[in-house]
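Reading a protein record of the kind used here takes only a little practice. An example makes this concrete, so a full record is given next.
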Amino acid sequence: MPSSVEGLKDHQLLIKLGGIKELARLRGFSRISYAVDKCEQDHVAVRCTMAFLPNYETGGEEVEFQDMANATVNNTSDFGQIFLETIACNRAFVRCVRNFLNVHIVGDDEINKSSGKSKAVDSAISAMLTPSSILESNASSKLGCHSFEDFKQVLRGWWSEGKYQNKDASNWGNWEDVPASEARALLKVVNS
């Protein structure tokens, strides 16, 4: 490990998440949003969209830029395997800022820290990372649903608005009753 960055080329450097956040703050942006494109037990893919403030480089126009990243049990470390959504969000943010600003230094969050070994998530973690458990977590944090009954009320509203319709939903009695494919579809609605 060199004692200084002097003389190192861009491909020999890494920027930490804090550095990317500072770059984004210095450049300026008005909003940021994330969309979960894929959410499975062992693979999460997220898009980050940022609206960068107008400046002389953009001709005085606000510019919206988007990038995508994923996190899997094979490209994260042991600890990170239980936070795939968070890691995918961080990676998408890093790529969005780096690529918009044409920074050719890799972000530390983008690096595979699994040492190239395929790692399996143990059964306790695996049980926690089901599509229905992720739906439950997102419904609680984003919709304020404190129970499955609260969520069914939201579903009824979505049905009348045409956002989500599934005749089998009335038979669901708890989070585990929601089929994985439906939980993924509902996650898209929750996160939109």
The chain has six helices and five strands. Strands lie at 14-15, 29-40, 43-52, 63-72, 106-107.
